Amino acid sequence: MKQNALFLPIIMTFVLSVFLSGAAVAQPAAPGPVKCLWVGTAAHNEPVMDDVLRDIGENYPSVAVTVTENIGDLTLDNLKQYDVLLLLQLKTENGDPPEEVKQGIAEFLKGGGGLVVLHFAVANVQQWRDSIDILGAMWVDGKSTHGPYHEFRVDVADETHPIVEGVKPFITNDELYFNLLMRPDMHVIMTANEERGGHTVAEPMLATHYYHNARCVYFALGHDVKSTEPPEFRKIIVQSIEWSACRR
Fold first, then answer.
1. What is the pTM of this model?
2. Residue 129 and residue 84: Cα distance in Å, rounded?
3. Which of 7-21, 87-101, 229-243 has the lowest mean pLDDT?
4. pLDDT per residue over 61-118, tens digit each?
5. CATH number of the domain encompassing residue 177
6. Contact 81, 113 (CB under 8 A)
7. How many domains does the chain have?
8. Whole-angstrom Cα distance, residue 216 to residue 206?
9. Alpha helices for 111-183 (secondary structure H)
10. Domain range for residue 167?
């Protein structure tokens, strides 16, 4: 019995060392960058995102962006390669994407992908009647509009949201969209004030929603190159991509 008692600490030490070494081996590898398929580099058919994409590639290693102008890349088989889909402009002839594209986007999101939607993307798919459920917002001809392109301030409505971590209110030059048709469950994170009929209205500039369990973001800015120059604009895009991929 004494001999067994002497060997017990040795055995326990050996077992513990094996357990700890096994635990070390079993540690999951750090996740790589978020893989994002970025659709469209133009808004209103003017190239606006070249410098933004260069900035992201050089200064934000947490995100790996693949750019396409081809709407045919939005099939489910192709989207499965990515964590997040970002839409700036969907090039369609009649404002209604092909069925395989609509189905591909919907199934990608149902399968756990994330979505980021910028500025004009809600305005060039008006014949896609289900798009509001996915994109979160829709431009409605005869109702939705914007005033003249001008300088305005973008304010933070929810300072606790991870997308705006480190982001302060900023000044931009852009089109200030208002009267968009929006999902009622949109969570508004940033706003900009619009004067209408003698009243000040805080229009949503950045908002989130869920499509099934997919995290989705709508960011209303990005009309031209000057609109994309504020560093806050670029940071919001990157952190929106990260959040929609459940990395924030």
1. 0.87
2. 22
3. 7-21
4. 999 999 999 999 999 999 999 999 999 988 887 889 999 999 999 999 999 999 999 9
5. 3.40.50.880
6. no
7. 1
8. 11
9. 131-135
10. 33-244
Angle, CA 103 vertex, CA 98 and CA 106 arms, to 5°: 130
Tell me which residue of 221, 193, 42, 202 sits closest to 116, measured CA to CA.
Answer: 221
Can you give the pLDDT at residue 5?
Answer: 52
What tokens appear for 108 in the block? 């990608």
Please name the residue that has the structure tokens 């947490």. Answer: 62
**Residue 64 covered by a domain:** yes
d(CA 161, CA 182) in angstroms, rounded, equals 20
Q: Name the one residue in this structure whose structure tokens are 């952190």.
A: 239
Which of the 8 DSSP states describes residue 62?
T
Q: Is residue 36 within 8 Å of residue 113, measured between CB atoms?
A: no
Question: Rounded to whole angstroms, how far apart are CA atoms 155 and 194?
Answer: 12
Residues counted in the chain: 248
The answer to whether position 17 is within a domain reads: no
> What pLDDT does 16 receive?
44
Question: pLDDT tens across 154-184, in order?
Answer: 999 999 999 999 999 999 999 999 999 999 9
